[in-house]
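The passage that follows is intended for readers who have already worked through the single-chain material. We present the inputs for a multi-component assembly, then the predicted structure in tokenized form, and finally a short commentary. You are encouraged to pause after the input and sketch how you expect the pieces to fit together before reading on.
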Amino acid sequence: QVQLVQSGAEVKKPGASVKVSCKASGYTFTDHYLHWVRQAPGQGLEWMGIINPNGGKTTYAQKFQGRVTMTRDTSTSTAYLELSSLISDDTAVYYCAREPHPVTSFVRAGFDPWGQGTLVTVSS
Amino acid sequence: DMQMTQSPSSLSASVGDRVTISCRASQDIKNYLAWYQQRPGKVPKLLIYGATTLQSGVPSRFSGRGSGTDFTLTISGLQPEDVATYYCQKYNNAPWTFGQGTKVEIK
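Having made your guess, compare it with the prediction:
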């Protein structure tokens, strides 16, 4: 079955960087867009950006421009989110999520499935 | 950036009630709208896409309507397992903005 498995929880100091991984299985990794979404404690969902695993093209939310990098390794079917210059407000659960239809279908339909989430805590 | 505004922010209803959540886009997004359910402590789950199409496996008591800027999610016959926060999301282009969420509780 289609599955996205993320790396474990992280604790970082302000000013540091964090890199979260998202390993895909059960489908052809390069066929589907992947997104990153975060959720601060008790808050709503915030879209961070998208990567096309076929070629690596990215689009980032304006809020994170200059601080976020999304990459992928097609040999291991793994996507990565790196966020730098961390502040306490970056404390959140970070999710990867796949678009359910292949890129080549030109059909968009939200996100399904989602990874299990990775808690990143920024604290001095 | 475009805004997605949900109302109400929370509601309390009895088991079996019909519940409706609204989502308004600040610009025309045609039918590029999805609804998600996030149960407490769980990962968001896609319920509806294309404003009206039920994702496979989602109970038929969930339904979506609307196009352009005004959308609704209806639960016809609220069940205890529907206690969750519901989010709308636009996906016509970047940014893939979410609404702020509507928390649904049982009275």
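Commentary: Chain A has a mean pLDDT of 97. The first strand of chain A starts at residue 3 and ends at 6. How closely did your sketch match?
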